[in-house]
Structure formats: structure tokens, C-alpha cells
Amino acid sequence: MNKTGVFIVMLLIVIGGAGWFFAENMPQRGAPMTGGGMNPPSDNTNTQSSSAEEKALPIPPLLEDKNPEQGKAEFDLIAQEGTTEFFNGKESDTYGYNGNYLGPVIRVRNGDDVKVNVKNELSDATTVHWHGLEVDGTEDGGPHSGIESGETWDPEFPIEQPAATLWYHPHLLHKTGEQVYKGLAGMFIIEDDISDSLNIPKEYGENDIPLIVQDKQFSSDGTFEYNLNRHDIMMGLQGDTVLVNGAVNPYLEVPQGKVRLRVLNGSNARTYNFKLSNDQKFHQIASDGGFLEQPAEMTNVVLSSAERAEIIVDFSEFEEGDTLELTDQGTPFMSFRVTGEEGHQADLPGQLTTIEEINPSEAVRTREFVFQGMGRNVNINGKQMDINRIDEVISLNETEIWEITNEAGGMMGGMGGNGGMIHPFHAHGVQFQVLDRDGNPPPPNETGWKDTILVSPGEKVRVIATFEHPGVFMYHCHILEHEDAGMMGQFEVE
Ligand SMILES: [Cu+2]
Predict the structure, then answer these.
(1) Ion ligand 1 — residues with CB under 5 Å?
(2) What are the recorded Gene Ontology BP terms (predicted)?
């Protein structure tokens, strides 16, 4: 800063609010304010231009069930190419299911026999994996279930698990990252007698809201592409713009009452630390695989890629016109606008469900999974994915403990702590329970069913599961760039 600049700053400090002085005497009024971080507290021009871009949160439609018969459901899903306008007047090439970006919500009931007709209208092959669904390997939609361009795939499966917020996305070998990033993902909701009977918000789109949170790296022209640089290969592709249901900085109008948010981290690699802008407490009622036994009171929730949390936020104390923001590490990315409408008031049930704890003594063995390597060398137990190799064989209906260790951060961790990589571990076709993290019991929001678990650098997490579905399934890191690079293996249940 030159001497004149220093003088102006000092003058500002000395005379404080004497704006008239500058109005009368500054030759270039306003110039120091743009460059010097000295914006006045209420810059109406900026507020108006940013609010003009704000969009109402898009709510993905519920996909029509074509089978009127009770206990059966049939859906049509088309993977297709399109364009999406994330910023006014700027179109980006995207993928979507039954649309240009993301997909509709598939909602089924426990006990339903489900059929999905998947048509691939992309120019590339794809697959559709039902993330979190307990189905046989042939219906799971992993890399073995490739659908060539122009072809169809019609999996049929019964729903045999409790109410939960799951999701679906492609799982093509080496191409999962690209296809998810371009927009292929959707929510898959299971309801059951328990979710029906609980006095919690459950009006879809009104007070039961899906939030698919993703990050993108946009170019200055408002488009994005899937091009990995060296940093992306190491850390997974992490963008600077957060989208919710495909919208940048959207707002949601909420009634004065409790609202249920089904939060899905649908990002390729990023881990979020969600918090409300006023540090207000909320309750997590469900994890990946369904309800927790009791609501867990929290001020923040951490979700790594593919993890879900259903949370209840109470807006009863707010007045019409009030706003609240949802933040990641303190940075807002969507807002809630409270309306004059009265919302869901009932207290949360003290008990949501009962979860039968799997006793570790039932486990027939402990299997170890060590996450190692960096960049293109990421691996599990020293091996990279080979579609022609089965890595682990499990007997049908047996219970096992899986011990997942993250050693991959070792080298960089030694260089200064935060260089270590987290790895979200995901196993297909099964829901597990967390036994411990480095020998300590899991936090309350990890005491329910899980299918994806964040494993920090140097950490060891033990989970337990009973394998009730036959077939070939994947286990892998859910940082999609790590998965695509080979941090994946196959287990066969027989
Ligand atoms: Cu990873």
C-alpha cells in the first residue's frame, strides 16, 4: 500500500462514520472499497444481484409406480444426455435419469416386489447400482451389470429391509466418477410400517425434503467437465461450488415447525461438516440404513461421500421472513426462508425403532481391509481392482467382522498432519453395524445401520454384518476417483 493508501486507511479509522467527507472529497468514490476489503456493512447493490440469482430448491419428483397392484412396484428409468443451466444463460452438458440432471426419487415399501426398466440412452455404457439395497449380486448393478448404449436392463428384486434413505448411481468400471459427476444419481426411499406410524414430518416435498449435496468445479463460462488434474487424482475431484438438488445456493421455504431433511452426500470426493448458521441444534433420526433407535441431538453432522443422514430441524421458534442457512465448515450453501405457515409441532418420539445388535461372538471370522497407497496407486490389501478376480469368499448367512484400516495417509500424514486422506469404505448388498473406531464405541449417530463409513488417516474401524444375499459384490473406497483408480475389490457370497 502506498503512502496515500495508508493515509486514507488511517483517516477512515480516525473519522469513523463521517461518510460525508468521502462523498464530498474522494475523487474516485467507492474505489478503495472494492479493492481494500472495506465494503460497508449493507451493500444493497450486492445483496440484490445475488438474490436475483437465487433459485427455489428443486424437489426431485417421485417416480411413478406403473404397477397398480399392492405389494408390487415397477419403474421406468432412462439414463440420458442433456444440458443444464446452473447459472443464468449458461448451459453445461450433463447427464440425468429421465431428465437433464440427477433423477427422480424412487419410493418403495418394505415387502414390495420391485421391477425397474433401465434404458441406457447415453452414448457410453453404464450401470445402475442401488446403493444400500440388500439384494442379490445379479440385481445389485455393479460393474458386472453393464448396459451398453441403446440397451436395457430390467432387474427385479424384493425389498427386505427397513425404511431408509438410499440412492442409485452408475458403477461402470473406471467410469463411475465421470458418470456421477455429470449428473447420474437419484434418491431411493424405502418406507415401512414403522416410518408410517412415527409422528415425524413425512409429507414429501413439504416437510420431508431430499437434499442431494454435490460439489462442482465450474469454468468461467458456467460449464463443467470431468477432467482430472494431479490434485484430483490424489484427493478426488473436489469443486468450489456446492449444488443442492442441482441448484447453486438455493432457498427452501419452510413452515414454522419441524422439517425433515434427507441429506445425501452425492459428491465424488468431498466430505462435508454440516451445521446451521445460528449453531442451532438438530436431531439425526436415521443413518445410511434406516432409523436410529433414538434421535441423536447434534450441532453438526459429518458426511463423507455416499453417506446419508436424516435430520430434523425445528423452525418453530422463527418468525415469518426469518432466514437460516445450512453451512459446510461455516460456509453457507443453501438457505431456509421461514413462512407464516404453522408446521409439524409434535415432539420427536423418544424411541424411533429397535435395532437388534449383532453380537460379535456370532462372527465366524475377522477379515482385514487395509487402505493403502496414493494417487494412481491406491489399493486395498496391496491389490487393485481386477474384474476377473474374486478377493474374498463368504458363506451365505454367516456373520463376519470386517476391520478396515486406513494406512494410505501415512506418508503424507507424516509430512504435517492434514495431508492424510480419508477413505469412505462402502460394501455392496449389505448393511452393517459399527463395533468400534480405534477401539472406542461409535458416536450415537453411528449406532444404527450403515453401508458407508468414513475411515480417517491412521484409523481402524470394525464393522459387523450378516451376509444374507448371494452373488458377487464390490467393496471399495467411495471417493470415486480412488474407486476408479482401483481402490476396490470383489467379494462373493455363496
Ligand atoms: Cu479413498
Answers:
(1) 423, 477, 479, 482
(2) cell division
